[in-house]
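Blackboard transcription, Thursday session:
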Amino acid sequence: MADKLTTMKEAIGLYVRDGASVCIEGFTAFICFAAGHEIIRQKKRNLTLIRMTPDLIYDQMVAAGVARKIVFSYLGNPGVGALHCLRRAIEKGSPAPLELEEYSHYGMVGRYIAGASKLPFFPLRSYLGSDLPGVNGRIRFVDSPYGDGMVAVVPPLTPDITIVHAQRADSNGNAQLWGLLGAQKEAAFAAKNVIVVAEEIVDEATIRSDPNRTLIPGIIVEAVVHEPFGAHPSYVQGYYDRDNEFYLKWDELSRDEDGVQKWLDEWVYAVADRSEYLRKVGKETLERLRPPSAPAAAVDYGTYR
Amino acid sequence: MADKLTTMKEAIGLYVRDGASVCIEGFTAFICFAAGHEIIRQKKRNLTLIRMTPDLIYDQMVAAGVARKIVFSYLGNPGVGALHCLRRAIEKGSPAPLELEEYSHYGMVGRYIAGASKLPFFPLRSYLGSDLPGVNGRIRFVDSPYGDGMVAVVPPLTPDITIVHAQRADSNGNAQLWGLLGAQKEAAFAAKNVIVVAEEIVDEATIRSDPNRTLIPGIIVEAVVHEPFGAHPSYVQGYYDRDNEFYLKWDELSRDEDGVQKWLDEWVYAVADRSEYLRKVGKETLERLRPPSAPAAAVDYGTYR
Amino acid sequence: MNDAKSQASDDYTPSEMMIISAARALAGVRTVFVGVGLPNIACNAARRTVAPDLELIYESGVFGARPERQPLSIGDPTLVTGATSVVSMADLFGFYLQGGLVEVALLGGAQIDRHGNLNSSVIGDYRRPSVRLPGSGGAIEIAINAQRVFVVMQLKRRAFVEKLDFLTSPGHLSESDRGRRAGIPSEGSQLVITDKAVFDFANSEREMQLVSRHPGCSVEQIVDEIGWNLRIADAARLTTPPTEKELSIVRDCRRNAGRSD
Amino acid sequence: MNDAKSQASDDYTPSEMMIISAARALAGVRTVFVGVGLPNIACNAARRTVAPDLELIYESGVFGARPERQPLSIGDPTLVTGATSVVSMADLFGFYLQGGLVEVALLGGAQIDRHGNLNSSVIGDYRRPSVRLPGSGGAIEIAINAQRVFVVMQLKRRAFVEKLDFLTSPGHLSESDRGRRAGIPSEGSQLVITDKAVFDFANSEREMQLVSRHPGCSVEQIVDEIGWNLRIADAARLTTPPTEKELSIVRDCRRNAGRSD
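(Written on the board underneath:)
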């Protein structure tokens, strides 16, 4: 078993090259802000950012100038409103123009599945009658060879690098997640390289005690980073809650371009790493976000010898 | 919440009609012999039997004359050898001719997925160069609209009834499984009706304590049957082992047509239900099959209020 | 039923009337695909009145949620803990939605046209929009695969337009495009539920028509907010005002939205 | 390495020679798709010798098994308990196999032809077979999607045939059909490992050729078991006999097959 444990600084430095396509997945939950901030800090450029819901993380990354293009299906601050930096980039080309490649949620999921399973396309019942295929030529239609009509298809998506945040992983990258599974498994299998970031690094025996829970196997993982609270201000099921105050605050401060740059200076460029960020956030906030327990019922796999 | 708890006798009587297509899934594990035997006992006729691996259960059902056709991908006694009743039916038309519709494993899985998600076809990288599409016209090929060649497709499969065996379910049919997941989820969502058979009936709170583990939601389930050891002589992870002695014994006795009928008389027709079958199998055998514990590591979902 | 509770109230807001109209429309429904906010409250109110077996399905992968607090988003962890089933989005969209298990979906948008088509993508030109909206999310496939669609929106002239800037999610399309609905399993938009009135499409042209105006809203006020020549159904009537019971349930749900009983 | 252990032995069976040849062929391989029986033992022997990082993938959905006893079938519960990951067959075939994560697959069959094509379906006519064999299982997609295929079979004339009764899983197809391999990601059969000899396809016709005969097996004995005019590679050599160490590991694996270290 290879030990793939490394720091976020090294993992991003090694696997995120200028011009790469980068996918940080996690639907509302498990959003690895720690990785996003390190990409900003390392001043990566011309990235293609892939995510169903760009959320605050890509709003920040686009404002910081790392991106040339985004591939997405829903541009919003979940439960709050708009993503102001992304809107400025799209509506005003500020700070720089941003190329868009737009799908629906299931279209994005289907692209990951096709990429993960090396299919030339994924079929789905969507897009009929919509204007979206008119502005995105990658969405096409195929006739069923069984004579029962037409179905939409999307092509495979194979990010250069997918970054997935998990509750626990071993040092080989076998990662277990529970809660909203989103499309992390599909996006990871679709990628050329995978970085797993975990709240806890556990021994192999813990992973092996519940093999059905392993969403990402180490065989597809290049690097493992131990980063508690690495998804703050988003959440990790059972570990911490969403820091909704920050989501609301971002809605305010991100309306102003200068405010955003000041925030990036203070919270990203001026801090060395995630530990320093967490010290700045403060123990009180982190403690407030920890939920009381709600354990899963016991499960037994049985010993067969 | 509807209470769907009923007996196997009632569930089979109500949902398995003569001429129906019936899918009892479970790859090597979770094979619901209790349901198969009840179908034999109720003398259902002209069924289309669907399963990736017909295993001993369909060997017995075909010998008992319930089937007109099988849809499958691998005809074998796993780890032992051939299925003699099925071979007799195919090679000699005895006791009656049997129509075959044959796929590969992934072709069967793809058919379930297409059925479950109402797609006109499922694409897979298979069948190129094989003689199988030549004898099964339902296997076809589609050109990728992205100009990168051809891919095989299979059409949806929508069984009239799928029967799934689980470790635990609530009375509404929410079922949790661990171990080999096979294609039970796909076969259940593809079906018009689903019967869930469970080792244990648990309260709703147990299911809700681990929602990621729910493979089959009650919303697609018509009937729930409590049938401990209902998968004997196959196995249920963590509950009992495969009764390999029976698998070996079947290899011997099933070579003789009369021997099979005698076995069916003694073990199926002459017993009223599963409890009586289990009394005949004997406590000693059942106890021998119970594995020592191997618990899964704890998981906590957190309380968010 | 308690007589006092079944009596009409005249102390309610237009938004409460909208939520109650949506809840009533869910009578007998078993599965509804829903976002957070007002539609979520309508669904929870429906569970406590006309649709006791109603289960909420969220595109985040949650089925049968029992949230202990008002969810902040469709991905809120309170929706996960205690749910019946939480699955990947591949399974949610493939097996639940496309599989036909969603009876009703509640949708909204920035613009709607007379055939119930929705725009949630852009105001202005797609390439150089004056306002970039969120986009589809799951809306396109929801509109196409849910058995029926109820649109829930505030009635405003800038939203009810003669021509959409962009057609994100198909309703009944236009008459000339209607043929393209051949591959669409959904029956399409059935109702448009607003704060002033309810509309349906029960005519051969599948054109939005007024079927019920809320108490206190005149036909003129309604027509004023619509960017085309509005049809009025022959059977158009006045919406039954909220009962005390409906109002108290809606207010309770809003205080404590999402908590089920 | 211990000198005594690296010495050749002459006390071994043809089946042990076959297993050891297969294990050696797995040198450096990280992922192998495997059934139970001899190939399983070969993989476990390879892990303890030339391929310490080798992980076994079973079509039943198991990755990284650590069985505590010899598995009775590819669906044995002992493969599940303690495995790294156990997934649905949809994920196993879609993401692992079709996704290209399988470096080598070990396959067998009732018949093989000179181009490494395999029959595991029928002897005789498909509609009225004299022997109905198990069929594909996952073999067709394994043959098409594993990066490389090693065939492991007993060398017998009735199995090594001029013409297959049925082509279940494609090897290099026939020369006239070769174009159909365009859509096949696999490099196809690389080796055929038997109890008497090892063959490869390293010629422009992709035709099976003898590359290594096991000690004690003459070219004549080998040719006798093959239903066509067998090619013999210029570089054909004698298989290195098993070392004491290889034999002791294989015997240990057979006693306790599947147990890993």
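Lecturer's comment: The longest helix of chain A spans residues 257-269.
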